[in-house]
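TEACHING EXERCISE
Course module: macromolecular assemblies
Task: Read the component lines below, then compare them to the predicted structure of the full complex.
Student: A.B.
Group: 4
Components provided:
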Amino acid sequence: MAARAKKTSKIEDDRSSLFDEEFLKKLEYLHMVSRKTFVGLNRADRRMRKIGSGIEFADHRKYSTGDDFRYIDWNVYGRIDKLLLRLFEEEEDLHIYILLDASKSMLIGDPLKLHYAMQMAAALTYVGLANLDRVGIVPFSEGLHTHLPVARGKGRIFKVFDFLRGIEAGGPTKLEEAATSFIHRYKRKGLVVVISDFYDPSGFEEGINSLRYNGFEPFVLQIYDEKEVNPSFHGDLTLVDCETGSAKEITVSKSLIEAYKREHEKYCGELSDFCSQKNIPYFRTHTKIAFDELVLKIFRLGGFLK
Amino acid sequence: MNLLAPIASGTIATVAAVLAGLLVLAYILKMRRRRFEVPFSTLWQRVLKEKEATSLWRHLKRLLSLLLLVTMVGLLLFAALEPELGGAREDARSIVIIVDASASMKTIDEGEDGSESRMAAARKQVLLLLDGMSADDAIMLMRMDGRATPLSRFHGDLAKHRKTLSTIEASDTPANLTASLSAAADALRWRKKPQIILVGDGAYPEDALASATWESVADAPASPPASEPEPGASAFKNKQLASVDLAGIDVRYQPVGSAASNVGIISFNVRRYISNKLNYEVFIEIQNFSDEPATRRLVLFNGDSEIDVKEIQLAPGQRITKIYPDLGGGAESVLRARIESLESESSDAFALDDEAWALMPENKRQKVLLVSTDNLYMEGALLIFDHLDVDKLTPEEYEVSLAANELQDYDAVIYHLYAPENVLPAPAHLLYFKPSGPHSPFPVTGSLDRGRITQVSQTHPITRWLEMGDVNFDKLDTFAVDTSAAEVSLFQSIRSSVAAAKKEGRRKVAAFGFGLEGTDVMLRVAFPLMMVNTLDWFAGADSDLITTYTTGRPARVPLDGTYGISEVLVTTPSGAHQKAPLREGYATFFAAEVGVHKLVARQGDEDVAEIQLAANLSNASESDIQPSAELSLGGKKLDRPVPGSATPRQSLWIYLCLMVLLLLLVEWYTFNRRITV
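Instructor-supplied answer key:
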């Protein structure tokens, strides 16, 4: 009990220094780099083609009773004697949702995977907010946790930090249930960045597919700890699943470690292949890679910023 | 293969059972695994599914691991039984070799030029004996001086015995043959073919040689023959119990030493005179143990100063006694006597008894306060003792001086016909004559008219040499004496105590139920004696105190003023330190060296009491260094030892331990390679 309390307090301590001044400097740098590198190249990629009240001409359509007279194109009427309405292209804000895995398995690693995921979420949110996109953060485990509503504006970044610091982690990973809840809650389509270790016993496919089928654009970011890939323990052990609590007595030998490594690689490969087949951007990283380096990598690949 | 079995098989079996239990328990405990938290056990389960097929082999390997541990423990226990290669022989003997390391073994008369000690010769003889031992003989080495000390258990490792033998040196104590034979006989009880080999010079007392019996004490009749008169029965039983039972034991004797002459001091002591404690008297006894007449110079020292030199002539075997009366002066309390040849300082082959020490009891000056009205008899009695400084005060002056805190440095206070409420603080000792009232040290229970003293304590220092039967008293006060509180009744009239003494921490208190009025006690010899006895008891100066002891015997030394201290620190003449127990004011101490010993009782960092004592050989049997080529024990002449048939032997325990080490390495390697489990 005492050990657990100690562990919890350690996590809180770590969180307090997660978003310090150094972190903010890195975010600002990322924002500058994103503007310099991507403005003009990918800007149109994320534009929503919706006819509305914009200023850029898009098309004509036939006048119907009740249409606003102000949009009748009188020049065309003069030439061809038909009442046509002028349609303009409407630019719509991009909605970015960050689905952050806050299950118990994210509380493993050095640094904790959750902390790393939080920094990633903060960085992506900042860049999104700075580009005047609307960004929301939704932590999940077996369901959705308290979320940060979608909002816009760079000034909200400190609220984002506070929210991230206050996330309560726990529970097993159930991506499908979390995705279903997310779809029911958020009607506005947009980009969904899923940051998770994807250690879901029931699989990751259904959850990601649910997002796709409902018009969201998933963006998969898998985080793992190096120790998970190269376990350093050996001998007679009782392995306990941190999420389910199920225990298994095993004798860990060198060959068993090798078999486990292969299995882990295979599992990650399945996720990568799945994303590749569905044309979903996929990134895999371990917690020792600096978060800003990873964010730049994401920018270079494109698809995140409009 | 032969098992020496130095540990009883029952003990080995018990240890084996306990170890087996502990081993299984430890093995079960070993199976309790460390818990390790993983984020996604599904992956491990997938891997383990593939490995399930090998689980049977894994269990088998665990059993093999347990078997390996049991084997290692079994090998260690087997090593403890000391197995040796070579079959057990029926004629294997159990031998105790008693090596004489008594004082006489310091005699220098061995070797080609006579410059080797008997001890060195004895070691050589034992080495020869060991070389001739049979492979199956189990040998124990025992050192004999003032005590019998086994130096090994029974085993046949000759290298170990040789190493042990090289450490034996002669001591300053006489040989205790009875104790050594008794210890050897006890060690050999129930062993096959028991044998004792005594290696020494035969300088043993006649009574020790006669104390051995070749008939089993258990088989001997419990009572003397019917014809013997009844009073002899007790002596017969005591003799049986005191004798050393050597029944069934083959005892042999290997002599060392050659003919040598010796003149030695066999007694040396000093005492102070009771009446004049500044002077003392010295007693010395010297004997010529050779067959030739001898002339020696006898020198007496006080500290390092010679106080007397005499030339003495001794006929063969002659013993002379010298008394030096009425000696005085000399600052030192240590007296030393030395006999020298006229040619050189080294007089003979045995130098240990050429020198002896004696210590004069400390002459303590005492400051005494007499609280009394004019009392000529009391003052007269105190004046005759030179070591007393006496002051006199009347009771009124005493009260005033005590209140003014002017009475500080007195060792003893005498109250005559007076028992004040306020007395001098401890450690001032108190003597009362006819105390009365509520402040009497002993409650006064009554008074006897024309009473007489009918009984005098036989043990208390105050009543030593006192005869009080013909002393007349008009009145005798009686005291209530609480013997359960260690109060002692000194004089009794019929059954009533009329004088008593007690100790209150560091203070001593005595009270007499009479004054010097209405009695003729002050006209008797007993009166000054009673006074000096009392004041000596107060000062801890015991005129019967013995400060000169013989080596090799436990000495009981009184240390005055030691309360609540359980041990004293002894500094031996060679400067070594040892501790000795202290019980009820007496230290029990075994002197192993000749010379002056110092005993100090400490409480915390403070030295509470200190005494010096001298230890001398003072043993005529030990000084008689003529070696005995033949020795008779209990009337039976002892034969020389015979060698056994030497056969090769090989101890296996070291190989067994190496095997265990090898198995441990295998276990360690396989564990680290994850092969074992």
